[in-house]
Amino acid sequence: MSTALRPDLAAIAAMIRPGARVLDVGCGDGALLEHLKTKNVDGRGIEISQANVNACVARGLAVVQGDADTDLVDYPAKVFDAVILSQTIQATEKPRAVLEHLLRIGQRTAISLPNFGYWKVRASLLMGGRMPRTRTLDYSWWETPNIHLCTLADFVDLTRECGATMVEAYALNNNGTTARITPDRLTHGYLGPNLFAQGGVFLLKKS
Amino acid sequence: MTEAPRFLRPVTQPANAGMAVTFETPLPLDCGRSLAPFTVAYMTYGALNAARTNAVLICHALTMDQFVASDNPMTGKPGWWTDMVGPGKPIDTDRFFVICANVIGGCMGSTGPAEIDPATGKPFGTTFPLVTIRDMVRAQKKLVEHLGIEKLLAVIGGSMGGMQALQWAASYPDCVRAVVPIACAARHSAQNIAFHEVGRQAIMADPDWKGGEYQLHGTKPSKGLAVARMAAHITYVSEMALQRKFGRALQNREALSFQFAPDFQIESYLHHQGASFVDRFDANSYLYITRAMDYFDLAEEHGGQLSDVFRLNSARFCIIAFTSDWLFPPVENKRIAHALNAVAAQVSFVEIKSDKGHDAFLLDEPEMFATVRGFLNHAATDLSSGSGA
Question: What span, in angstroms and rounded, lies between the C-alpha atoms of A142 and A173?
Fold first, then answer.
């Protein structure tokens, strides 16, 4: 159980204050929720896979089998201090609706996502002429669950359209490190994290 | 005072008959009447620990009884949940003190319509007061107190047993640490009520029902009760399971008979279900218990807001549904999970893929076993490590 957290999860974990009430949407096997227990976090999860839900229940985690696309509507506003969505928004049917629900349900929303603007992805499509396959996006186009990929700049645009304020932003680097960035560095100019970061981690709020 | 339970029919295995306790203090009922004295027949498995913290109450479904993990002394058949309950099983009797009681209104030793009314010296019949799920749970609470248990580790049940588990959390939130409602709902739907009404009308239309006084007339509304059971049984299985098991296969014949005798295997299967049921179940009990389920609407007593039922509830919940259950479909189970989520209660919800329909909770469903085992294990561990709610 003491295996190191995925870098984006570690970045998210650092955003959660001790004792907070947290909803992890797409919590997988519960690794992050388990880790957050060390911070006395009162954690809940939503997970689509039955095997993962069972793993969570056996760990003593409170996890509801469900689908972010259809189930978030049933959660009342601002019950949670923080809502987490890690590496999942690109696999939802309606990313904007999901994001709006997250902003409604949580005081804060922590999101990590892969960056389709990452130079290796761009290069792969440009040079290879095929849909890119990278370490984080390792699927053939015809079987990928990632149906709504975007670049970090695209995502920042969406958060603005949804009226969210960005509290913190981090670039996820290829070597597993994270670096704090300003959102403007993503949306202005051609260089910067939108080209060099493999993914991003964001903490949002909407009052 | 604890004694041996009295059963309506002779017991073939008296050694397995379990226990019964009779309370002289009246049991107040939702209908406004009360029941005194009243008897609760029950079974226990495993041992209560010194701290009295390892008690698990199992609540049975409509036609089940307290013989959850041991042979039924009347039918001689194995307990109805032996895959789930026993030494080393998900509800491990080596670890937990398991209690299962016959519901009041039932016919396996707890006070019900077939018992003698002390006021008249005659069987209650339809003069027995209408009982509700909440009344059943009230009686169980008396039993649990009688056994010296202040707080149950868990209340677990499927179908009507799940309703009771939910009612426990609602009525006695401080007396239960973990709740596992399986294949159930927070209210009976119009369709649920409709099927029950068909069953009740079948019983009451049987001339041998005699206005509910069949015991006095020495008759039994077996035909009506059998039809009720046949109709209900269809609702317990999925269309897919019926098709897989029977299809259009013929029973003991090569060709259609062009008569009304059962041609199809599914017909003779249902006949068998009906016939074996009337041997073990009381018709009036069937009327009363189906009514109790119809009346169940947990939110009603809280102004229609289901989440208000669970406000400030410190118990942890694990709700289990089956994909092919059309009697208590996953969406109804999930409503409970959402209500619990709305008040930030500790809830898990598992939707198990199965084509076996509602009855899946009684069958070999490894995912269900794994879920219950893991959940219960953790509830017990948290308790002993002192971090329990």
Answer: 27
